[in-house]
Write a structure and sequence with these properties.
The complex is a heterodimer of chains A (about 240) and B (about 300).
Chain A: H1 4-15, H2 19-40, H3 47-72, H4 74-79, H5 83-86, H6 92-121, H7 125-152, H8 156-174, H9 183-194, H10 206-229
Chain B: E1 4-13, E2 16-26, E3 29-34, H1 41-48, E4 56-61, E5 64-65, E6 76-79, H2 91-101, H3 107-117, H4 133-145, E7 151-154, H5 163-178, E8 182-187, H6 190-196, E9 199-204, E10 207-213, H7 214-222, E11 226-232, H8 235-242, E12 248-254, E13 257-262, H9 265-279, E14 283-288, H10 293-302
Parallel strand pairs in B: 3-8, 3-9, 6-7, 7-8
Antiparallel strand pairs in B: 1-2, 1-4, 4-5, 9-10, 11-13, 11-14, 12-13
Helix pairs in contact in B: 2-3, 2-4, 3-4
The chains are: A mainly alpha (about 240), B alpha/beta (about 300).
Chain lengths: ~240, ~300
């Protein structure tokens, strides 16, 4: 299912450049803010749910996933080097799956692990574990979405940002029904199921989140495989 | 022996026809796809490489369609136009990665062999980002060749190369072509194609304008009618003599010299020098007046 040669090239492209620092910035802020709050107001029990739940799941996690997910395949499509992978008999399904897994794992390292660390810094182990699990789940769905988006449009970053900021950031807060299509709320649902009573306020139930998340992941990846299968090179008259 | 077969293949983008009803069979040896920019050469190569769907017609590589069939890449290698490559890898890593993607039993050995073919063994452990344009092109050829495909397609492989790199690439293509492989490359420069290709397919405005042995096409090209501007020591006397030659269709005296319409480019070029010597007239200038590639191609289409 996975191709080691593609995985290694993708990892080197993603981590070999200064871009890796970019991935780490949102998480560093999260961990930094948690450490400061822990030191300044150690007795206030309400901030971890807000900082790690709301800020973590609606800013840090989606932005990290967006930057990584849209670049693992999108960058190669943009500069044309994807042809070196496509002009081989490797099944398109394997190419998409490999890119997706690398992106999801990288997002877990750069966003889910920091959630866990920040939760532990906050001194709430159960909440930390819940957030970690929720972030792992959300990393999977986000990256399927963003990898797929990068095969559909060369402006995947903008399209993804629009989803994260307008749909999840604004609409999901104003219109309750919008949360049913919000990946960050799926993550919160998982976190809330493990660490109940922490005011994470997920907008969807655990079952709905799992089902919808699985459907979105499978559907967007299948669409990406189909689009990559009919990848076209534009000629001189195009 | 892998052949490429096109039967009535057309491709259009929206309502722009890029390739129009092309039928051809390309077999082993080096075939040059010649034509001016925008003639549809790249589109045709992309169709052959399975990265574009024919809007109409049938296209097969080794007997099976190329579109939406990744298996075709076991017998086909593609070198696209431009310089795209994983520049953060070394040349050897890049070609080895290609070998691993093709699931070759011994990727390292296959990579060494391909790198040897393109003569890059020396710098193969340097990052591709440090390579010159010609080296990049060659390492991309090596990556496309690593699985020893029967068909190799190259889009404008000489673009941006200096003369030395150009000779090197020509030599490489010629060597590859003698091994029974089907090599197809595109170019808009006649000399490049004539130098390397045994067979030429001339594309003009999306259509196959001429096709066949390069000597036949070269003959067509040298025997085409042509206009020359001639300046000499005695234009009027030269005009009188010229009009008596069979290769000359008309002569006009202008203040800037003679305008000569020749019916045969090659014969006229030889004739006029001999004539001037015999008549003792000094030739000052001999300029082909419409030596644009487009006019040459337009003639080929008409004939």
């Amino acid at each position: 299912m996975l191709n080691p040669a593609i995985a290694s090239i993708t990892l080197r492209a993603a981590l070999g450049r200064r871009r890796a620092l970019l991935y780490a910035i949102p998480s560093l802020i999260l961990v930094g803010v948690s450490a400061i709050l822990r030191l300044t107001s150690p007795s206030d029990p309400s901030w971890p749910a807000y900082i790690l739940g709301t800020f973590g799941f609606s800013v840090v996690l989606p932005l990290t996933a967006l930057i990584i997910g849209t670049s693992v395949l999108g960058a190669e499509v943009d500069d044309g080097s994807v042809i070196h992978v496509l002009a081989t008999p490797v099944p398109r399904r394997v190419i998409v799956t490999t890119k997706f897994v690398v992106a999801a794992v990288a997002t877990m390292v750069f966003a889910a692990v920091p959630e866990l660390l920040a939760g532990l810094i906050a001194g709430q182990t159960r909440l930390a574990l819940g957030l970690f699990a929720g972030a792992l789940a959300a990393a999977v769905v986000y990256n399927a979405l963003f990898v797929s988006l990068s095969t559909a449009t060369s402006r995947a970053l903008v399209a993804g940002l629009t989803y994260v900021v307008l749909w999840e950031g604004v609409l999901a807060n104003v219109v309750g029904g919008a949360r049913i299509l919000s990946v960050s709320h799926y993550g919160l649902a998982v976190a809330g199921a493990i660490a109940p009573g922490h005011a994470l306020r997920p907008g969807v139930g655990l079952v709905a989140a799992c089902v919808l998340g699985a459907v979105i992941t499978a559907g967007t990846l299948a669409a990406a495989v189909r689009r990559l299968g009919s990848f076209t090179l534009r000629g001189e008259t195009a | 022996m892998t052949a490429i077969d096109l039967h009535g293949v057309s491709h259009w983008y929206g309502n722009v026809v890029a390739v129009n009803d092309v039928t051809m069979t390309i077999g082993p040896g080096v075939t040059g796809l010649l034509g001016p920019n925008g003639a549809g050469k790249s589109t045709l190569l992309h169709l052959m490489a399975g990265f574009l769907e024919p809007s109409r017609g049938e296209l097969t590589v080794g007997g099976a369609p190329a579109w939406r069939r990744p298996d075709v890449y076991t017998v086909l290698g593609l070198v696209t136009e431009g310089e795209s490559a994983y520049t953060f890898l070394t040349g050897a890593e890049f070609v080895r990665a290609s070998a691993r993607l093709h699931r070759l039993p011994d990727p390292a050995a296959a990579a060494r062999r391909a790198i040897g073919l393109v003569d890059l063994v020396g710098p193969m452990d340097r990052r591709i980002s440090t390579y010159s344009k010609g080296m990049r092109q060659r390492i991309r050829v090596a990556a496309a060749l690593v699985h020893d495909p029967g068909v190799l397609l190259l889009d404008e492989p000489f673009n941006g190369m200096d003369p030395r790199q150009r000779l090197h690439m020509m030599d490489l293509l010629r060597r590859l072509g003698t091994g029974g492989r089907t090599i197809v490359f595109s170019s808009h420069i006649l000399e490049e194609v004539a130098e390397v290709a045994g067979t030429i397919q001339v594309m003009v405005a999306g259509r196959l304008a001429a096709s066949g042995d390069f000597r036949a096409i070269r003959r067509l090209m040298t025997s085409r009618p042509h206009v020359f501007v001639v300046r000499s020591g005695d234009d009027r006397r030269l005009a009188t003599a010229l009009i008596g030659r069979p290769a000359v269709r008309g002569v006009e005296l202008t203040p800037d010299g003679l305008q000569v319409q020749a019916s045969d480019y090659g014969a006229f070029s030889l004739d006029i020098t001999r004539l001037a010597r015999d008549e003792g007239i000094r030739l000052r200038e001999l300029l082909p007046a419409d030596e644009s590639l487009e006019s040459v191609f337009a003639y080929l289409v008409a004939s």
